[in-house]
């Protein structure tokens, strides 16, 4: 049976506050746990008015206290922004607080301009070149696979599930070489999806952590009682995508009816391209869309994405999706 999980960016909506954003994320995590989701992940972004998950490990600690058993983790930590030692300490702490529940998804993209590089006191593009070595070092800090001149405490011995994230062949190749589970970010970058999964499965080398390839694919999912309602709640994220690609990101905007009809052809084409990794509509339509996506990718897990302006709409979308897919999608 295919497993389902949730990715959240801690979106800050127009007219909303950070406190409200964190409360909405907490409510969503509780709803994901109640609905039977396997994981709840938070993504690291910085210096963006509409995304509040920058202090990812802190957010995860709060979510861990608000939930009981769902796995919690990063989707992902952008390792070039940090040192492996810092992340070993942070996630080692999370593992000690919430044993057996911590995932550590790692990404390579620095995602930063010169201002953030200066703020972090790092050359992020240079740091990204050392990403493979940093992943190996981080794993060694957690497992003790080989001797290092320093011990991470907390960190060493932590039972953390390490994941490789990606949207290109690079992440797939590294995940295969290191024998790690692989999560593909098709929800915003579907171009290399099929090729990356093929490379990962072809080149996978078993490790102590994983005997065979394990794939999770992220997709945008918006479910509502009617197709019109689903398309309406999806329009907030569509607006965010268009603004981001236009160089004008901001807080999550209110939904707009028939939003795509107002766009120029180029923006419509961009959203249509992203739509290959999306399911929007009634519970039946969403179930059929997810089933087709699983058939295409052979995914072991699906990561459900998709911010809504009203937090209650995302909780309802998740509940409808999980109910529709229950016992209906055999892997």
UniProtKB/TrEMBL annotation:
Identify the GO cellular component terms for this protein.
Answer: cytosol
List, alphabetically, the Gene3D superfamilies matched.
Luciferase-like domain
Q: CDD domains given for it?
A: Flavin_utilizing_monoxygenases (cd00347)
User: Luciferase-like domain: which residues?
Assistant: 4-300
Pfam families found in the cross-reference section: Bac_luciferase
Task: Note the coiled coil stretches, chain numbering.
Answer: none
Q: Molecular function terms in GO for this entry?
A: oxidoreductase activity, acting on paired donors, with incorporation or reduction of molecular oxygen
What's the superkingdom here?
Answer: Bacteria
Spell out the PANTHER family in the cross-references. Answer: LUCIFERASE-LIKE MONOOXYGENASE (PTHR30137:SF6)
Instruction: Tell me the protein family, please.
Output: To bacterial alkanal monooxygenase alpha and beta chains.
Q: What is this protein called?
A: Luciferase-like monooxygenase
């Amino acid at each position: 049976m295919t497993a389902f999980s949730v990715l959240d960016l801690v979106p800050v909506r127009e007219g909303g506050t950070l406190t409200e954003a964190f409360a909405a994320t907490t409510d969503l995590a509780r709803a994901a746990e109640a609905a039977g989701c396997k994981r709840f992940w938070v993504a690291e972004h910085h210096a963006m008015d509409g995304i509040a998950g920058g202090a990812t490990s802190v957010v995860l600690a709060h979510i861990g206290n608000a939930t009981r058993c769902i796995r919690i983790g990063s989707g992902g930590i952008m390792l070039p922004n940090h040192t492996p030692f810092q992340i070993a300490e942070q996630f080692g702490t999370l593992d000690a607080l919430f044993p057996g529940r911590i995932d550590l998804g790692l990404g390579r993209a620095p995602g930063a301009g010169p201002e953030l590089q200066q703020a972090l006191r790092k050359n992020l593009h240079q740091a990204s070149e050392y990403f493979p070595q940093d992943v190996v070092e981080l794993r060694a800090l957690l497992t003790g696979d080989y001797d290092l001149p320093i011990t991470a405490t907390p960190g060493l011995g932590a039972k953390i599930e390490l994941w490789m994230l990606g949207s290109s062949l690079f992440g797939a190749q590294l995940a295969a070489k290191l024998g790690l589970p692989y999560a593909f970010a098709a929800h915003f970058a579907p171009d290399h999806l099929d090729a990356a999964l093929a490379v990962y499965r072809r080149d996978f080398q078993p490790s102590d952590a994983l005997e065979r390839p394990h794939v999770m694919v992220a997709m945008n999912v918006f479910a509502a009682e009617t197709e019109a309602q689903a398309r309406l709640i999806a329009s907030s994220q569509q607006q965010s995508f268009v603004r981001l690609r236009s160089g004008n990101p901001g807080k999550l905007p209110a939904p707009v009816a028939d939003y795509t009809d107002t766009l120029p052809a180029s923006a419509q084409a961009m959203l249509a391209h992203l739509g290959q990794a999306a399911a929007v509509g009634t519970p039946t339509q969403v179930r059929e869309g997810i089933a087709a996506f699983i058939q295409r990718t052979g995914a072991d897990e699906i990561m459900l994405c998709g911010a809504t302006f009203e937090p209650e709409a995302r909780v309802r979308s998740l509940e409808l999706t999980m109910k529709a897919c229950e016992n209906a999608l055999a892997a």
